[in-house]
Amino acid sequence: MKYDIIIIGAGAAGLMAAHAAVSRGKRVLVLERKTRPGCKLLITGGGKCNVTHTGDMRSFVEHTVTNGRFLYNVLHAFSNDDLIAFFGRYGVVLAADEDGRYLPADGDAKDIIDALLSATGGAAYGYNARVERIEKIGDGFMVHTDKAYECASVIIACGGASYPATGSSGDGYEFAASFGHDIVKPRAALAGIRTAESWPYSCAGVSLSNAGVTLFDGAKRMYRERGDIVFTHDGVSGIPAMNTSSSVHRCRTPVLSIDVFPDESPAALEERLMYLCAEQPKRTIVNMLDILLPKMLARVCVLLCDIDGTKRAGELSADERRRAVVLLKQMRLTVSGLMPIERATVTGGGVAVAMIDAHTMMSKKIPGLFFAGEVIDVDALCGGYNLQIAFSTGYCAGMNA
Ligand SMILES: Cc1cc2nc3c(=O)[nH]c(=O)nc-3n(C[C@H](O)[C@H](O)[C@H](O)COP(=O)(O)OP(=O)(O)OC[C@H]3O[C@@H](n4cnc5c(N)ncnc54)[C@H](O)[C@@H]3O)c2cc1C
Predict the structure, then answer these.
(1) Residues 6+ away with beta carbon under 8 Å from 217
(2) Ligand 1: distance of its center to the CA of 159 in Å?
(3) Whose CA is nearest to atom 4 of ligand 1?
(4) Residue 58 exposed, middle or buried by CB count within 10 Å (0-12, 13-18, 19+)
(5) pTM of the model
(6) Residue 25's pLDDT band (boundaries 50, 70, 90)?
(7) How many domains does the chain have?
(8) pLDDT digit string, tens, across residues 88-113
(9) 300 lies in which domain range?
(10) Is residue 1 scored above 90 in pLDDT?
(11) Residue 48 shares a structural domain with residue 184
(12) Which residues line ligand 1 (CB under 6 A)?
């Protein structure tokens, strides 16, 4: 049988593309290498699936770290409001939390997948069907798994190279490259940050709430966010650190600066330290710092400031106090890398946007070949933006293929 459209990948982008194509009456085949659809969707948002975010499309473009402007048209063609209405039609009510993230109000990622499958009624599915290559034949294509399928158009929605156990191991880049498309080297995005200093690793498990995180490249500020961070065996994690990680590749000498007390000026923090020392002069300095900081961090603080933590708080000199304030307001860490791409939430890089028509998602090189989702060189911050990108690009590819 000859299909109008073959979609490679039954993830967020592929399923939405299938919905759009089926709604136009197209004969659609979805080929998925795993035994079921949406393996990555199932684990998104800690299983709750944060599908999108509040805000207008300008805000979505701003929250896209790489090639946000390329997405302007598709985000308008299928916006967060369209997505919320879509899921509503298929029985999933979405509600925004206090941070503006939309999640199923009364359900989880499984409901999102079920809704997407209901919306693609009429499409044929082939599971356990890893596409090995795509061949151009005349006006159409032959798509090869261990079988061969003929079609007029192909949508490559294979995802990136992160979390390969969910099926996305970078095959889409090879298909795109085989047709001469430029590929921006895939890299980790939204990942934990590794540091040259070893002390963050020794603080594994310690978290700081509402810390200020700033990424510098030399003296230039590249990114700034506030929120909860956690030190891990891999370095620094938590949403502000993960968001920061997506800008690291733009830096020559990336340095992370953590402000433990962003609501307090250095003078106010110094005054607070003075007050604590005066109030409990007999306490050891390290015990006094325990009042302000998690225990492990208090120990690191005295070490880094070269203060004898066993001294009495009443003996803390003005110079030592100032050193502690400088450290707590600007804990500088040299970024030595990110967690490997396999463990990154999202893959940066991918099919170069210059090769894709921004209105239709069709290749500018190969008519009839389309791209959707994370396989494209786009990546955004945490908060539902990456899934919205997958849905919007999938929708446009499905409407135009
Ligand atoms: C742990 C985790 C949590 C996340 N949480 C969120 C969140 O809450 N909100 C958010 O916006 N984003 C989140 N993301 C990111 C988001 O999941 C992805 O950006 C999004 O799923 C990308 O969709 P996609 O359809 O492009 O790719 P994928 O969802 O990866 O789908 C690609 C599909 O293609 C299939 N495939 C690959 N190669 C082949 C082949 N050769 N033949 C056949 N099939 C193939 C794969 O098996 C897979 O099913 C999270 C990611 C992770 C890893």
Answers:
(1) 250, 251, 252, 253, 254, 255
(2) 5
(3) 44
(4) exposed
(5) 0.96
(6) very high
(7) 3
(8) 999 999 999 999 999 999 989 999 99
(9) 266-331
(10) no
(11) yes
(12) 8-14, 31-34, 39-41, 43-45, 50, 130-131, 157-159, 162-163, 166-168, 171, 345-346, 373-374, 384-387, 390
